[in-house]
Amino acid sequence: MSLLIALAAGVAAAQPLVIAHRGASGDRPEHTLAAYELAIDQGADFIEPDLVPTKDGVLVARHENEISGTTNVADRPEFARRKATKTIDGQEITGWFTEDFTLAELNTLRAKERIPQLRSTAYDGQYQVPTLKEVIALVKRKEKAAGRRIGLYPETKHPSYFAGLKLAMEKPLVAELHAAGYRKASDPVFIQSFEIDNLRALKGMTKLRLVQLIGDLNSGPPDRSGIGYATMVTAPGLKGIAAYASGVGPEKSAVIPRGADGKLAAPTALVKDAHAAGLVVHPYTFRQENYFLAADFKKGGDPRAHGDLAGEVCAFLKAGVDGVFSDNPGLAVAAVKSCKP
């Protein structure tokens, strides 16, 4: 039974999924067609486009609507007056925002590495900001070339904020996915969000699978001030999530926290309780740089140096997770294949 057939049948998959976090973002600027294509070539099961709208309502792939950290917009004098300060999900942010640019204007920008302190900038300036339509077209083309299904794992970013700007994402997202042939729960698509009402609205619009993202346990969904993520990952909270979602995407410390020494501690009950509620668990984010790794898996003292990513991934696989988000999908694929229960 193939991986995606197993998922469609609602049974345990042959092996955990590798979800390319923003594409192969450890090797190319994130959320570019080059990053997604490399991730597919490295064997990722799914690619993850985070989505935000443009001024003219086109869904594009950016981790945030503030784009000075991932494009060259700050170097473009013709856009200097677009710099603004906005409050998004309760946080004041200054920069340039996708909702203030048409798609034609965004197409003139070029992507750059988001964390140059840790990663190469060799590919800065080479790639455009892609639309969701372009990402889907890439996936379809690569499926034909590779002879395998490739999944899409889009995230709606700040959906309640954009709804307040009359740029709600739910209908355009569902329309694009349905038009591309993704309509059934068995299709290789998960739609994820940190918000609740966004997912509940999507539940009424599509049969595609939904995933509740879980952020820092000291915080909560931006659209629900009275609910905390810590409550949502309890056994009753997970049963509540199962009423509208097929899975949870927790920050990885909610699955295995780190001790005072920075090493991985014992796993929490999250995986067991999520599985009991019928939910899959896809934690984020697994990265190869020492800066991001638990102390058990660092190699040397240089934060840019590459540690034992496979070892960290394997620890989570042994804790029972159903997939992992990784900036280095090729290494994560190898870890899934080599990890012994």
From TrEMBL:
Keyword Signal: yes
Pfam families, A to Z: GDPD
Keywords: Glycerol metabolism, Hydrolase, Signal
Reaction equations catalysed: a sn-glycero-3-phosphodiester + H2O = an alcohol + sn-glycerol 3-phosphate + H(+)
Broad EC category: hydrolase
Ranges of residues in domain GP-PDE: 16-336
E.C. designation(s): 3.1.4.46
PANTHER family: GLYCEROPHOSPHODIESTER PHOSPHODIESTERASE GDPD5-RELATED, GLYCEROPHOSPHORYL DIESTER PHOSPHODIESTERASE
Annotated family: Belongs to the glycerophosphoryl diester phosphodiesterase family.
Name of the protein described by the UniProt record: glycerophosphodiester phosphodiesterase
Organism field: Sphingoaurantiacus capsulatus
